[in-house]
Amino acid sequence: MKKLFIISIALFVASCSNNKEVKPLVQDIKELVFASGQLEWDDSYNLTALTDGVLKNADFDIGNLVEKGDSLATIDNQTNAINTQTSQQQLAISNENLNSKSPALQQLQQNILFAESKYQQDKTQEERYKRLYESQSVSKVEYENAQLNAKNSLANFTALKKQADVILQQAKQQQITTSGQLKNNEVVLNYNKIIVTEGGTIIKKFKTTGDYVRKGDVIATIANEKEIQAVLNVDENSIAQVKLGQTVFIKLNTNKNMVYNGKVTEILSAYDQQTQSFICKVDFDQALNGSLYGTQLEANILTNEKKNALLIPRQYLGFGNKVNVKGKDETIIIKTGIISTEYIEVLEGINQDDILLPLKP
User: Fold this and answer.
1) Which one-letter DSSP state was computed for residue 241?
2) Residue 213 resides in a domain
3) In terms of domains, do 29 and 140 share one?
4) Mapping DSSP to helix (H, G, I), strand (E, B) and coil, where does residue 232 land?
5) What pLDDT score does 341 carry?
6) How far apart are CA 35 and CA 46, in angstroms?
7) Which of 11-20, 99-108, 275-284 holds the top average pLDDT?
8) H/E run at residue 236
9) How many domains would you assign to the chain?
């Protein structure tokens, strides 16, 4: 919807009596596009539940100031606590398995010691049989058997040491896995807390103590009251006239006697189906004290402004931009500028001295 404002109390020489002459008048004019809207605070975001459960200790209220890191409420979810406790116990076992006193490593170390002792014994026996064989005191078969025993003992000793390395490596891998699981479960456990991610003021509260919430449910909305914007709904027939940087005159429904000035800072490119309009955002030129989030407002966007414009009443303009002028046998075709529901700006065709006549019925 478009409105035309003219900075003057009296625009035309007109009277209730039809005997008075009507002439065009020169005045300064402003063309404004009307839009409704509301106040919104910048950096608003929804604080959501990150897990399922029953909401507890939700003692906050709309209007409360909150700081980053504050806990607004908790969610009773025992599963997260149990998983974390289980991971802690598993990590303790994994750490024990890395200790040299762990049962598995102690048993293996005993086997390694026994295998080493057996190898040393068989090696000594092999050397003894070698000397006996060289002195022809034993047969070659007996000497080869002693060699084979020593070789087998060495292979068993080497295999047990490698097995110990494998067990230690597996224990380290298990420790890394369980440590990661614990960290993940601790993160999930923290989801039981509703933590403020950015400071601000609570402007909406959707859940209260005792409510069952699911992951993704909005608990509250928080915004920064120090950064206030007017969010306007502009009709699709007028949006083409709105440009960035245009001056906006705003009246809040809470105080319609006060007019605030602002500038268009953003025009959203997408059509808003919910409001059936285009959305524009306006920053105020001056600070607003004590403003309430969601306050309804009316705004007029200054889309055109002219000095010393020649104006005539709308009812004196006929089809084809024709007007009747006193002393002229034929209608005059004029070139129009700004057109509103009440007034017409005349660019060419008549002047300030012409007297207008009513249109013929």
Assistant:
1) G
2) no
3) no
4) strand
5) 64
6) 27
7) 275-284
8) none
9) 2
Tell me if 211 is assigned to some domain. Answer: no
Same structural domain, 239 and 356: yes
The model's pTM: 0.56
Kindly report which listed range (276-280, 285-289, 298-302) carries the lowest average pLDDT score. Answer: 285-289
Which H helix or E strand runs over 140?
helix 140-190
Distances (CA, A) of 140 to 130, 136, 358: 9, 9, 143
Q: Write out pLDDT tens, residues 49-72.
A: 999 999 999 999 988 999 999 999
- Judgement on whether residues 87 and 31 belong to the same structural domain of the protein: no
Do 86 and 32 share a structural domain? Answer: no
Average pLDDT of the residues in 151-178: 85
Contact 322, 332 (CB under 8 A): yes
Q: How far is CA 208 from CA 61, 125, 192, 205, 243, in A?
A: 10, 84, 15, 8, 43
Q: Do both 33 and 83 map to the same domain? A: no
- Look up residue 76 and give its DSSP letter: E
Torsion angles phi and psi, residue 193, rounded to 5: -100, 135
Asked if residue 207 is part of any domain, the answer here is no
Interatomic CA distance for residues 350 and 331, integer angstroms: 11
Q: Which domain holds residue 30?
A: 1-41+225-361
Q: Which residues of 303-320 are buried (b: 16+ CB within 10 A; e: fewer)?
A: bbeeeebbbbbeebbeee
In a domain, 53, yes or no: no
> Where residue 325 sits, what CATH number does that domain have?
2.40.30.170
Length of the chain equals 361
Instruction: Report the C-alpha gap between 251 and 296 in whole angstroms.
Output: 9
List Cβ neighbours of 313 (8 Å cut-off, separation of 6 or more): 12, 14, 22, 342, 343, 344, 356
Local structure of residue 102 (DSSP, 8 states): S
Q: Which residues sit opposite 313 in a β-bridge? A: 343
Per-residue pLDDT, 227: 82
Name which of 286, 343, 358, 251 is nearest 8 in CA terms. Answer: 343
The predicted pLDDT at position 265 comes to: 94
